Inverse folding.
């Protein structure tokens, strides 16, 4: 029994190291896809209304800065003219590490 517990723990630890990318993908599908689309292209009803960027477009990728992406995910985005929320802030529900992983995930969408 003790042996089983030890090997389970070992599995948990090695699993945790490789889990970042998988979690970012799951989070994206769960939290972000309703606007940005499962493929990141923003071809969703919300995406059309909000006129979202296509994350798979190399030009879009080039124009985005990692620091800005991080800030937008953490603090959300407001319409400058009306002050209305365009993207909600995820700083309350995601850790900085999770947000960094999401930035990397969004970068990956441009490489396919
Ligand atoms: C309610 C719809 C909505 C949801 C949900 C949403 N976004 Fe956004 N996102 C937007 C809008 C709108 C913008 C454009 C913001 C602006 O006006 O600059 C945006 C912009 C971005 C940008 C671009 C920032 C830049 O530098 O140009 C990134 C990256 C991003 N979102 C990632 C995410 C991630 C990751 C999630 C999930 C955790 C997410 N978004 C969830 C609507 C959404």
């Amino acid at each position: 029994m003790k042996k089983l517990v030890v090997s389970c723990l070992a599995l948990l630890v090695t699993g945790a190291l490789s889990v970042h990318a998988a979690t970012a993908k799951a989070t994206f599908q769960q939290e972000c896809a309703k606007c940005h689309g499962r493929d990141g292209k923003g071809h969703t009803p919300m995406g059309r209304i909000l006129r979202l960027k296509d994350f798979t477009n190399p030009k879009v990728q080039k124009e985005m800065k990692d620091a800005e992406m991080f800030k937008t995910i953490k603090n959300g985005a407001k319409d400058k003219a009306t002050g209305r929320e365009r993207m909600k802030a995820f700083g309350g529900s995601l850790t900085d590490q999770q947000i960094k992983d999401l930035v990397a995930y969004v970068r990956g969408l441009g490489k396919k």
Summary: The longest strand covers residues 85-87. The pocket of heme C is lined by residues 28, 31-32, 34-36, 46, 50, 52, 64, 68-69, 72-73, 77, 86-88, 90, 102, 106 (CB under 6 Å). Strands lie at 77-78, 85-87.
